[in-house]
Specification:
Shape: elongated
CATH architecture of the largest domain: 2-Layer Sandwich
Distance between the termini: 43 Å
Helix content: 40-55%
CATH class of the largest domain: Alpha Beta
CATH topology of the largest domain: Beta-Lactamase
CATH superfamily of the largest domain: GAF domain
Strand content: 15-25%
Largest sheet: 6 strands, antiparallel
Oligomer: single chain
Amino acid sequence: MFVKQAAHALEILEYFSRRLHPATPAEIADDLGWPRSSTFNLVGTLTSKGYLYEQAGRSGYYPSPRWLALAQTVATADPLLPELQRLVLAVARETGETTLIATPAGTDAIFLHVEQSKQPVRYCAQVGDRVPIHASSAGRALLAQIAPAERQKLYRRMEFLPHTPTTPMSPDAVEAELREAEQRGFHQSHAEYTPDLAGVAMAIPGQSRRLSLLVVGPVSRCLDRRPETAALLARQLAALPAPGG
């Protein structure tokens, strides 16, 4: 289900994160390609709720600190441990590639923490991005942590769409990938959801929820380095402090 009004409210926040200065409702409508009437109504609603405010001299509207206050309150209730954030940073620095932590979100994997590669050509992931859980190494590293019977229930909810020629297209194909990963010692991908990307992922052990650690980048740099990257991940994960330690 897709609710356009809810999506537009969030898109306004993303719009201001790119613009970084006030905008009038007409500018918002023109920049985003929205009808002016509905844009004026949405801006008025967000202003009345305290999420936007009009700056002096009618120079336009800008998000209020209310967004930040709510986000900080929510984040404190579901924090990603500092040692996991340090882990992602260390791996990103050592590999030179985009590194992230993912967790299950229905039939997707959602990114909870991301360190971008500094390379000019890289995988540009963002916190909150989602990928099909069966069509990514990060997702299959999460699926492997789910009991087989529960995985079968999840498969029945999935759409096995041909995102690329290498996308697993059935539960049996996904299960075969999981068996191969268990023998190999790590999960890997080759352009299964996004063309020209190769990734390596492993489960993060000892956590209160299912998490996976992923390194991903262009095929030209990362495909042949997958065993080397997996060895690096295994070493970093082995050095991770035990929970409560």
